[in-house]
Amino acid sequence: MPTTNLDTAAPPPPNNLIWADRLRNLATVLVVAIHVAGPVAHQNTEYNTWYWWSANLWDSFSRPSVPLFIMLSGFLLLSKDYPLGDFLKRRFSRIVLPWIFWSIVFSIYNHISKNQPATFKEAFLNLAENNVHYHLWFLYLILGLYLVYPILRPWVRNAREQDFWYFFALCMIGAWGYKILDQFFNIHIGLYFELCTNQVGTFVLGYYLGTKFLATDETGHIKPWRFRRKQLWLLSIAMILLGSLATAGGTWWASSTFGGKFHPYFYDYLTPNVGIAAAGWFIFAQLAFQGKALLDFEKEFAAASFGIYFVHVLMLDWWSRSGYWVYKFHPAKCIPIILALVCLTSFLFVLLIRTLPGGKKIT
Fold first, then answer.
1. Domain for residue 8, yes or no?
2. Is there a domain that residue 343 lies in?
3. This model's pTM is above 0.70
4. What's 4's DSSP letter?
5. In the 8-state DSSP scheme, what is residue 323?
6. How is 221-289 classified by DSSP, letter by letter?
C-alpha cells in the first residue's frame, strides 16, 4: 500500500483549492495595506517613534503579498500541462486586455490630474517602458513568467528534490546575493545567472511547496514533508514572524544607519526576509485555510482580486481627496480604517464593473 504523508502533514485533497482562494484574498488585502502604510513609512524620518513604527510594521508584514501571487500562479500553472499555443492564447488574453485597458485608464487619469503624459507619444513610451502607473509593473512581471512557463513546465515535471534545491540555491545567489552586494557593498558581479534572477525562483517555489503536500514516497519526484503537522504549523508561523520582523528591523537599521534617509532594501520583494515570510504564509495557508467551505463573500472577493489590484489605487486616491488619509490621525488607528474602506469600496466597484458587458474580461 503506498505510503503518504497523511499522518504527518495531512495534505489537502488534490482537487480542493479552498486554501488557494483564501490565500489570494489575503495577498490582495496585503497589497492594499502596502499602499496605505507606505507613505508614512517612506516619508517619515523619525525612525525611533511609534508613529513611524506603526506604519513600518504594517508595511513589513504586508510585503509577502506580491510573492504570494507569484507562488500561487506557479503552483496552479506548473501543476498542469497546456499545449503551447493554447496556453499563450488563454494566458495572454487574460492579461493583455486588462493591461491595455487599465493602462489607458491610468494614462488619462494621470493626464487629467498631473498633465503626465502630456502627449500620445509619451503615453505610448510609458506603456512600453512600464511607466504608466506605479502598481502596473506586476503585469509586466507576470507576462514575462508566462513566456518562460513552456520552458519551466517540462523541467519541473522531471526534476528531483536535489534538482529543485540546486535551482533554488542559484536563485538565492542571483536574486538575493547580488542585490545585497550591490546595495551594501557596492560590488557588481560580472557573472550572470541567466534563468535564476528576478521572480523565477518564486514562481517555481510555489509549485514545489504546493506539490510537496501531495507527494508520496513512491513518486520519486518531490519528496513528501518529513515533518508532522504540528511541526509544520510551528515552522510556518516561525517563518512568517522571522521574515516580517527582519523586514521591519532591517528597515529601521538601514534607514537609521545610512544617513538617516529611508532605505528601501528590506522592503524589496527580492530579499531573503520577504521570501522567508512568503514561503511561511504559503505553507501556513495549506494547513490553516483548508477547513470550511468558502463563504459566498470569499468566492466573490477571490474572483474580483485581479480587478481590485487595478482599482484600489483609484479608491485610495478618492478617499484621500475626501479627507481620509494616513496623516489624518495616528497611523496605528488610521491605517486599518483606511485599509478597510479601500478594500470594501474597491471590491464593490469591481462587482459593479463585472455586471457590465465585457466587465469580467478587464477584471
1. no
2. yes
3. yes
4. B
5. T
6. SSPPP-S-HHHHHHHHHHHHHHHHHHHHHHHHHHHHHTTTS---GGGSSSSHHHHHHHHHHHHHHHHHS
